[in-house]
Amino acid sequence: MSKILSVDDSATMRRIIGRAVSVLGFDFLEAENGLQALEVMEKNLDGLDLVILDVNMPEMDGFETLRRIKTDPRFKNIPVMMVTTESDRARIIEAIQAGAANYLTKPFSQEDLATKIAAILGGF
Fold first, then answer.
1. What sign does the CA torsion over 54, 59, 63, 69 have?
2. pLDDT tens digits for the chain (124 residues)?
3. Is 72 inside any structural domain?
4. Is the pTM of this model over 0.90?
5. Residue ranges making up the domain that contains 28
6. 71 assigned to some structural domain
């Protein structure tokens, strides 16, 4: 079964993303920070199709988490979509240059999220 991991320190945001992911037919995994995300990824390497990663989190922020994902041979080919309240163009460019497949600004609709997921994963 295909899996999508949401990494966000907000339980509410993970719940919103989880609903959208379930509607699309994916298994939903979640983590509340970057360190926890890397642990979840190690345990779920098979079938992990996408990481939806918040930027502003305690422990390890989204940019550091993204860098670790993209420099780890086991994870580097898993697409990462950044999700944040920041709409600053420089931050978006930084995320894409660091290896993010896409970028979504909060707040967003489930339709926006589904469209971005489909774009990254090539439709379903």
1. negative
2. 699 999 999 999 999 999 999 999 999 999 999 999 999 999 998 899 999 999 999 989 999 999 999 999 999 999 999 998 887 889 889 999 999 999 999 999 999 999 999 999 986 5
3. yes
4. yes
5. 3-83+101-115
6. yes
